[in-house]
Amino acid sequence: YFLFSCQDNKLTSSMNADFMDLWKEDVAEVFLWPDENYPTYFEYEISPLNHELPILVANTNGDLLRWQPFHYNADRQTDHETAALGGEKKPGAAVDGWVAEFFIPYKLLIPLNHVPPHKGDRWRANFYRVDYDEPKSVSWLWQLTKNTFHDYESFGSIIFN
């Protein structure tokens, strides 16, 4: 389960469907890398308008290959919701911010190794937010990365209890 509380003045979000290039507008993202032996991780993106992009990313020396989940339904599908704070949830709306919450089922993360996690397992992860308000976009990361937010070797660690 993940919860993002995003300060924002304007919802820079116009994409009106799932599986679009959400990273080009306001977005919150989670990266989960359960097995450090393989450069493949899960990325989940959600827009303020509640559209999502769940993908597996193979990152070989910065060359990114992405796959969308197959049979993305029932117990393999995320449960997600967003809300605008202090304004309407619509493209270009003036707001005080927005909130995104989502649940990623472990079944969606298969075929990654070490899924589901067991007590004491350590996964690498990062949490990312981009605000595309004018005149310049601003981004936040839980763990700073060196060159790009896809620098998975700079992800932080989460330990399951």
What is the count of distinct domains? Answer: 1
Instruction: Please give the largest β-sheet.
Output: 7 strands, antiparallel
User: Which spans of ≥5 residues are poorly predicted at pLDDT below 50?
Assistant: none
CATH architecture name:
Sandwich
CATH class: Mainly Beta
Q: What's the helix count?
A: 1
CATH topology descriptor: Immunoglobulin-like
Q: Terminal Cα separation, in Å?
A: 15 Å
Proportion of residues in extended strands: 35-45%
Instruction: Please tell me the overall pLDDT.
Output: 93
Envelope shape: globular
Structural class: mainly beta
Helix content: under 10%
Total count of strands: 10
Series of secondary-structure elements, N-terminal to C-terminal:
EEEEEEEHEEE
Rg result: 16 Å
Description of the molecule:
With 161 residues, the chain is an all-beta fold. The chain has a single domain, classed as Immunoglobulin-like. The chain is 2% helix and 41% strand. It contains one helix and ten strands. Strands 2, 3, 4, 5, 8, 9 and 10 form a seven-stranded antiparallel beta sheet that branches. The chain has a three-stranded antiparallel beta sheet with strand order 1-7-6, with no helix packed on it. A hairpin with a 6-residue loop joins strand 8 and strand 9. 29% of the residues are buried. The model has no long low-confidence stretch (mean pLDDT 93).
